[in-house]
Specification:
The protein is of the alpha+beta class. The chain has helices at residues 2-10, 12-31, 33-61, 63-79, 264-271, and strands at residues 84-88, 92-97, 102-114, 120-125, 138-140, 146-153, 158-165, 170-174, 179-184, 194-200, 211-214, 224-230, 240-246, 255-261. The radius of gyration is 23 Å and the shape is elongated.
Length: 277
């Protein structure tokens, strides 16, 4: 302890400089909008790039599993090739949803940061505005299952509000009878493999094992979500609720597809028209 005090007293000028410098930087960033904005943007870019480099080792250790997944996905894409409008092998794949006659573009992205242990889980991917990514775009996994929605976007990175987020609401249907509901997570249960479908009309019969898919609003219709694992979940309203076992394993996601909907802007303007002044 004595040696520590001798060391501090000998270099007290240096330590005082560090303290005053840190305080000065904090006050400058806190009280100036421009400096605060620059600092936050720079920090997000640095942190995102750091996580991307740290994930190189993780991707290498899981390379065998990823290769198997990509091989399986390639087989499915070749099988469905005749359904595609066109294929740009360098950038993305365009797909026409025959149910809604909407055209979508699927853009592959790597997950550079992912959380599954919080009540509001966020992911970061290595695609941004330079790749055409925009806020509120739908995100799915390469195999099957809903991942979430694009939340914030920078030039080369974007964050995803995961399905494992208490504010995420996704319109879904029970495949066998097209009964609509809302998929939510974290309502008293934070199991990353479970979610709940709520708001199903009470005259609909729900059975364990029923498949749940997307309705077709933000996401293309028919994207797999999960299977009903428990019915008669108690709620305080006049609608039915059920527990859903999710197809996605969020703890192992390394790649995702961001879905670009060419009619998204038209749909937004129609549903939320600008009121004349």
């Amino acid at each position: 302890m004595r040696n520590l005090w001798i060391f501090i007293s000998r270099y007290n000028a240096f330590f005082l400089f560090i303290i005053f410098f840190t305080v000065g930087v904090v006050l400058t960033v806190k009280n100036n909008a421009y400096q605060r904005s620059v600092t936050l943007n720079s920090t997000n870019e640095i942190v995102g790039n750091a996580y991307e480099h740290l994930n190189v080792l993780k991707r290498y250790l899981n390379l065998g599993m990823v290769n198997d997944s990509l091989a399986s996905e390639n087989a499915k894409l070749k099988t469905q090739l005749l359904k595609f409008t066109s294929v740009d092998t360098a950038k993305a794949v365009k797909f026409v949803d025959t149910l809604t006659n909407q055209q979508y573009t699927y853009l592959a992205a790597k997950v550079v940061k992912n959380s599954v242990t919080l009540t509001n889980n966020i992911m970061t991917i290595n695609k941004g505005t330079a790749d055409g990514i925009q806020k509120n775009m739908a995100v799915i996994s390469p195999n099957k299952g809903v991942v979430g929605l694009i939340r914030d976007v920078s030039e080369h990175l974007a964050t995803i509000q995961s399905l494992l987020h208490k504010d995420t609401r996704i319109s879904v249907v029970i495949k066998k009878n097209n009964a609509m509901g809302s998929l939510v997570w974290g309502d008293g249960n934070f199991d990353i493999k479970k979610a709940f479908i709520k708001g199903v009309p009470n005259h609909i019969k729900i059975n364990v094992g029923d498949t749940v898919v997307t309705y077709g609003a933000t996401f293309p219709a028919g994207i797999l979500v999960g299977r009903i694992s428990r019915t008669n979940v108690t709620t305080n309203d006049n609608f039915l609720s059920a527990e859903v076992s999710l197809f996605n394993d969020f703890s192992t996601l390394q790649y995702v597809y961001v879905i670009k909907n060419k009619l998204a802007e038209e749909e937004e303007n129609l549903e939320n028209p600008v009121k004349p002044k």
